[in-house]
Design a protein that fits this description.
The structure holds two protein chains of two kinds. By secondary structure, chain A is an alpha+beta fold. Chain A contains seven helices and twelve strands. Chain A is about 25% helix and about 35% strand. In chain A, α3 crosses α7. Chain B is of the alpha+beta class. Chain B contains five helices and nine strands; from the N terminus they run βαβαβββαβββαβα. Chain B is globular and about 60 Å long. The chains are: A alpha+beta, B alpha+beta. At the A-B interface, β7, β8 and α5 of A face β5 and α3 of B. Chain B: Pfam families: Med20 (PF08612). Chain B: It comes from Zingiber officinale. Chain B: Component of the Mediator complex. Chain B: It is found in: Nucleus.
Amino acid sequence: MMFDLSFLNMCSSRVLEFDLDIIQCVDESKLKWTSFHLTDKWSALCKESLRLSRISEFLLLNPLYIIRIMHMLHVEALQILLQGLCGVPKDRVRVHEFCLKSGPNLGVVPSEVRLLCDLAQPTPTWTVRHAGGAMRGAGAEQLSVLVRSVVESKVSNNALRFFYAVGYKLDHELLKIGFAFRFQRVVPITVTVTSANRMPRLHAIDDAVPLTPGIQLVEITAPAAGDNYNEVAAAVSSFCEYLVPLLHLSKPGVSTGIVPTAAAAASSLLSNSGGKAI
Amino acid sequence: MVPKKTSPTSPVAIRGTQESLTMVLPRRLMNWLPKYGSEITNPLLAEVILCLEGFGSITKVGNWLHRITIYRAIDRKGAYVSDASASSRNLGHKFLGIAFHDHPSVYFFVIPLPRHLTVLEADANIQILMSQLGSFKHSSVRYFQGFQYRLGDFQLKVGKCFRSAPENFRGIVLEIEYLPLSSMEVCRPIMKEFFGILQEEFSKMSVPGHLINIEAHFERFGLQDYYTAQHTALQYSACLFQLGVALRGGKKHDLIISDCLLRRS
């Protein structure tokens, strides 16, 4: 028995925003797709990740484990591919993300903000982020991207205390670990590959464990304004074509299948680079 | 350095220092207390300015305008959250948003309520974010506006505080900034001496009233000795409260910073 991974992309910007809705993984032996919504409570995901862990343990005892490891090296292959495409060194990503929701009866509608603490810097820096509702209508449906407004603001390191004081509560927190490439291709583009980790106790980042072992989130970000998002979307989509050997990218809510060339492309990239990720 | 006010159950609160995003030089804000029985008027402001401009080498360098917005939390019906409801929910339902003329890219929030004493510094676009949340509304705005001067190693701002009409103001403020040093402790005696010189000049010119210091209680907000723009934000919010308190003697006033904004615990 073995299973493969399917990556979904997420493109976001100050105006353009894609939210990850679904991670899919498929058990090839049963031809069965399992979908989870990342925006749901992580407890549901934890149950699924436990199931996946048991599969991993099984595979380690099984001669097929070599194939399993090759699948896990897809991330390394993606890193090599991105290094070649972007021509810039990768940046380390380690972000402690706090999802805060408004308390009961605060505001005309319930709202949510995210505090992001960048732990990859020598001195942690804090950002507060709010994403608005998605653009709707016939025009929005024709786009290959999901569009919504996003506001991000740098804040001092007592932002959590401030939002607690004005009535926001911590809904959940995540630690995102991975890497990112930032480069210019028509527009400034950032490609981030991260895994989400949960804390077993409040703020215990040193004890964080993967939320979905073996599953990475691939995000492609480009800044845009309200009057040029079509051009920016085209530039991002054009770049995504280069990742086709490994990834199929799609609008959230539209499922993608396994890339049939993924294994071959990954092994080719790894062998060309001597099996070493950058 | 660790902020003094931290939650005991939240290790994230001690991550890094409460460093300001905007480093500035020490400033001291003072409020003009009119002579008993007299009012704050345009002629009084003119006298103060005339006295300042009488200093030998002083030069006017420009104008300034700070804006302080009073935010209030709202409920599902869009009505302001009442004090009783906020108190029962331990909610900081009133706070100040401060935009400084000389720091256009940053914005400050000050929660002056005793259980939530906080000063937050952010990029200026946080105002857009806060309006998009739909949890808070502007209840009113106050302005500080005036002239800026340079006198040796000091930079001075003198101006008035008003609500909507500049000619209808209720407070006169004077801000002193000492340019060579950044440590408040070292600057304190120098500023005190300069303050004494100013007071003497105002007395000589028989300007009715005198300057009083704004006490901002930096340590209660967890700020350190090295001066930052957050210290300035606290001084202006304390000044706003002090002007409200100063006008509480039965007079109708525009500065409705009620005592529930800074209730003594």
